[in-house]
Amino acid sequence: MRQTTLTLTLTLAAGLLLTGGNLWAQEGEVADVADAADTPHLPPDSMEIGAKYTGWFLDGEADSLWAHFTHEQQERRSTDDIRSVMDQVLTVAGIEAEVIEQKYVMRHGMPQFWHTASFTDFEEPLMIRWVITPEGRIDGFGMNPLSQAPEIDPAPAPGAAPAEAPEPAADPSATESP
Q1: What residues contact 101, with CB distance under 8 A and at least 6 apart?
Q2: Bridge partners of residue 130, in order along the sequence
Q3: 136 φ/ψ sector (left φ>0, alpha ψ -120 to 50, else beta)
Q4: pTM for the complete prediction?
Q5: Tens digits of per-residue pLDDT, 43-92?
Q6: Contact 84, 20 (CB under 8 A)
Q7: Taking Cα atoms as reference points, which of 104, 101, 116 lies closest to residue 45?
Q8: Are 55 and 130 in contact (CB under 8 A)?
């Protein structure tokens, strides 16, 4: 198991080097969002959007994903970049065997869709993470074994106003992985 996790981590790290240092990162992290439709940063059909993007990723539909990237992400990434990551996942983890959970969390003041599933050739569940804008566009992507899930924002106090999204980093290559 440790060897397989290390292999996936190294494979994805190599992909990160080839794609500019991150997997289409977002500046910041996220808290559990109970009802995605009530989250001010999300479109009403956000659960369906996140599931659709994950399906496209797992089905190898790089062109469809790229068409839904934000303009900034389209300038930084190509369909070949997407296909490279898709191929790495297929090679190391195999195909998706079972969906374990799909949810939104808040991370760095922005919502992320987290799709957690077991895969045929990987002992640990993998998490695919999408940063989705209020317009339903893809503004970031991340992937990790479930045991390496990133920190999420603390839940807001009851009755507190929702946090505002942070300003984007001046240097896109300086952002961290979502």
Answers
A1: 114, 115, 116
A2: 113, 141
A3: left
A4: 0.70
A5: 677 899 999 999 999 999 999 999 999 999 999 999 999 999 999 999 99
A6: no
A7: 104
A8: no
> Are the C-beta atoms of residues 83 and 60 closer than 8 Å to each other?
yes
Using CA atoms, how far apart are residues 164 and 169, in angstroms rounded to an integer? Answer: 15
HEC secondary structure over the chain: CHHHHHHHHHHHHHHHHHCCCCCCCCCCCEEEECCHHHCCCCCCCHHHHHHHHHHHHHCCCHHHHHHCECHHHHHHCCHHHHHHHHHHHHHHHCCEEEEEEEEEEEECCEEEEEEEEEECCEEEEEEEEEEECCCCCEEEEEEEEHHHCCCCCCCCCCCCCCCCCCCCCCCHHHCCCC
Least Cα distance to 62 among 141, 9, 156 occurs for 141
Question: Which pair of tokens denotes residue 129?
Answer: 């993470």
Structure tokens at 113: 């869709």
Please give the Cα distance from 98 to 146 (Å, whole number).
Answer: 14
